[in-house]
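Notes continue from the previous slide.

Worked example: a multi-chain complex. Inputs as given:
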Amino acid sequence: MQSLIELLNNGKVLVSDGAWGTFLHKRGLLPGECPELWNVTHRNDVFEIAKSYVNAGADLILTNSFGGSPTKLSHYGLEKRTFELNEAAATISREAAGYGKLVLGSIGPTGAILMMGDISEETLFEGFKIQAEALAKGGADAICIETMTAIDEACIAVEAVKSVCNLEIVCTFTFDKMHNGSYKTMMGVSPTEMVKAVKDAGASIIGANCGNGFQNMIEIVKEIRIVDKHTPILIHANAGKPIFENGITQFPETPEMMAANVDELINCGANIIGGCCGTTPNHIKALAEKIENRNA
Amino acid sequence: MNEIIESIGLCIEKGKVNKASSYPIDMQGKDGADEITKSALIQNIGPDEILKTCNDAMQRIGEKFGRNEVFVPELLMAAKAMTTVMEHLKPFFQAGSIKTKGKFIIGTVAGDLHNIGKNLVSMVVEGNGWEVIDLGVDVKKEKFIKAIEENPNSFVGLSALLTTTMENMANTVKEIKAEYPSITVIVGGAPLSAESAKKMGADAYAANPQEAVLFLNEKIAS
C-alpha cells in the first residue's frame, strides 16, 4: 500500500474524514464522559463512525484518540490506560479502513501550557511518546498532531512521535481570524510561523483544522502557500460557526455549501480535505464526489 | 513614589512576576511585581494606590488582548504578576481597608473540561478589582445555584469550549434564571456568539475577558 506522501505525490487530492466528537455525542456519549474510553466500552459505535466515513468516500480516516494524552485522560482518572485506549483507537480505525485506505492516528493538545509551568517538557514528551507508540502498534499509517495552538507543544509532539516510529507526521494548527483580517492561534502563532517551526521539527504535511468554515480556510491556505509552495496541506473545516437554536446546537453549512467551496480550496493549494466540528458522512460524501470528479 | 507605583503597573502589563522569572526576556534579572510591591508597602505606599495601578495595568493588557495585539501567553503572564501583587494586598482586603467591586462566580459548564478561557476571564476580572469565585471545570447547575445562594448579589460567568456543551450552558442559564431571575449571567467561549447567548437567555455575551469586565463595571455603575 502506498504511504500518504506517495499517494499525494501522484498529484491526487485526498479526502479525509469528518467530525468524531459531535458524532459520538449523537450516539450517546454524554458530556463529561471520556470519548477515548468508548474505544473499549463502545467499540462498535466507534467502529461504525469510522466505517461511515470510509463508506462516504474518505481516502483516509483518523482515530478516536484526540484527547488520548495522559494529561487529558487524567481528568477521568484514566491516564494509566493511555497505551490501551490509543492502541484500541488505531485498531478500530484500521479495521474500518480496510486495505487501500489510510489511518491517521490523532493526537490533540493536552490543554496544559508550558510557559505557565502547567507541565514540564519531559512529561509532555513522554505522554505523546506513549500515544504515538500505541497508535503505531494499533495500525496507524501516519500520525496527525492536530488543532495545536502553541509552537512548543506542537514541536515536542512531533519530536516524540519521531522518537518511537517512522510514520509520516501531519501537524495542523487552529487559527482564528483577527480584527485586522490576519490569522493567528490563541497563543499568537501565524500560519507562516507554524510552517517553519513544525517542518523544522519533522512534520511532512501541515495544515489547519477546526475554528473555521471553508471560506476562512481558503485564506489560511493562501497565506501558507506564500511561504511554502510544496509541502502538502491538510484542511479540516468546521461546518461553519455553530448556532444555538431551539435548544440544540446546529451547524449552518450543508454538505452542498461545503462542496461548493472545494474547488477554490484546492486551487489555492490544499491537498487533503476533510471536516471538523459539525461535519457528517454526508458532508464527506459531497466533498468526495466533487474531488473524485476533479481527480478523474 | 510615583515611580514605584508606575513600575508595579509596568511589571503587570509586561508579565514580570518576580526577579527570578525569565519572562519577559527584556526584563531578565530585574525586580518584578513581587519585589517592587513588597518595597512599596514598606515605604508606606497606600494599598489602594497599588490596587489602582494594578487594575489600570490589567485593563490595558485586557484591551490589547481584545484588539489582538497580545495573545493568551502575554495575558496569562500579566495575570500571574497581578496575582503576586494580590497576595501582598490580601491582609488589607481582610482588614477592610481596600474593597473589591463585587463578587463574580465563574465556571466551565457541566461536561466541559476546558479551563484556559475560563481562567483568562477569571484572572482579568480579578485583576480589575473583583472578587472571583472560581468553581472550576465541569460545573453542574446545582453547584452554580449553591454558589449564588452563598454569595447573594454576585454576578455569574459561564464558559464552554465544546460545541457539544452549549446545550448544557443553555440549561444552566435557564436553571439559574428560574431560581434567581435578577442574577446577571454572562456567557463566553469559542463556539458562542452574541446571537446564541441571547437565545440561551443570558444577559450578555463576552467575546473576550475585557468585554466581561466592561459589562460588569457598567452593571455596578448603573
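Summary box: The beta strands of chain B are 103-108, 131-134, 155-159, 185-188, 204-205. Residues 25 and 139 of chain B are 38 Å apart (CA to CA).
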